[in-house]
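lol ok so funny story. i was supposed to be doing the assay writeup but got distracted and ended up predicting the structure for this chain instead. priorities right. anyway since i did it might as well share w the group, maybe its usefull for someone
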Amino acid sequence: MHMDLGAPSSMLWPELSRKFKLPKIPAKFSLVDEYGSRRQVAIGNIAGLVGTKKIEASAIVVIPYADKRLEHEDLDGVIGQNFWSKYNVTVNWHQKKFWLQDRNPDLAANAAARLSRWGSDLDSCENPACVVVTMKVDNAPTSQAPGTVPANDPVVPTQTIEAPPATAPDSTNLPGFTAPTTAPTAVAIAVAAPADPQYSLTIEREHHGLEFAYDVVVAAVDENGKSLALPTFLVSFQTGVKSLSLPALSPTYADAAGFVVIDMTPIGTLGCQGAKCIYKQSVQW
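and the output, tada:
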């Protein structure tokens, strides 16, 4: 197997996936190999266990290896970042050795040290990498008059409350009282079903960061600032762009208290515009 520290996913020749009877799953990947060729992948497999006697990972997504410039005899496939991401990796290329150390699963804990790799150009900003991320609920309920239902609710279920039957009181105890001859009318009360919250992200730069293009990686965190085990987002800011927005955030992020920057690269992704400059990572970064 080829140890590829840059490939987002692991790969295997389709013949070997069939040989090992790996279950098929739907997948969506856009891959660029070391030769600069891009291809789209719409199906993958799940490898139950990948590793050696000392290290292993379970439930690894394996996509078809399809580089026709290489032969099956050259390699069986690629071990990519969906395996390596749980480790801190040190490599000595001359000795052809890898050293692996279990990685802190809290990506936000080491964000400051990770950002410091790129120098001090953005240290004067109030927020890491001169970026602040805001998560908001787009369909938060508005104030309504008592007893009214929002006009845009498509379905308003009703609950009928039956009035108790009329009974004649003891006339001996209530002199002059005449019992009603008809029962009170049942009343139907409209109860609006609460809508599922819909979230969006706004990622903004401080003024100092507008002078050049760069990318940041943002991660969802809980109320204590600890990163959640959810896919991160790569956000690419073009020169002069102050703000980017991501509508219709997946409901899987509903438990997030917010988002923080955990890394950056001073080389911006070229040719993107608007929400297309925000890329959801296929695995947790």
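The CA atoms of residues 35 and 67 lie 10 Å apart. Helices lie at 14-19, 81-84, 111-115.
back to the writeup now i swear
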